[in-house]
Amino acid sequence: MDLVLLEDDKHFFPDYALVPTIRTDILKANPRLGELLDRLSGKLDDATMQRLNGEIDVQKKSIEAVATAFLTANGL
Question: Which among 24, 46, 53, 76 could bridge 71 via Cys, Cβ 3.0 to 4.6 Å?
Fold first, then answer.
């Protein structure tokens, strides 16, 4: 489509604020989830989220396929 990526020099689009959120009762019932969420959140920066969203929105891959590939590639 011969598109050009523009820089967001005015910071119109906010950065991703990635924070794991889980109910206490769920975490108590599944203690390993806390560790996994901590490992996951450390791997999701703005560039990664933009790339993953691009795979879904531009390349038309399914959310499940993109998420599975990302989690597998990162040992999660």
Answer: 76
Helical residues (DSSP H) of the chain, grouped into ranges: 24-29, 32-41, 46-57, 63-73
C-alpha–C-alpha distance, residues 41 and 18, integer Å? 7
11 by Cβ neighbours in 10 Å (0-12 / 13-18 / 19+) ranks as exposed
- 3-class DSSP state of 9: coil
pLDDT block averages, 10 residues each, the chain of length 76 = 89 82 95 90 89 95 98 93
Q: What is the pTM of this model?
A: 0.69
The two tokens of residue 37 are 């969420």
Q: Where are the domains of the chain?
A: 31-73
Residue whose pair of structure tokens reads 């399914």 in the numeric block = 62
Rounded Cα distance between 23 and 34, Å, is 11
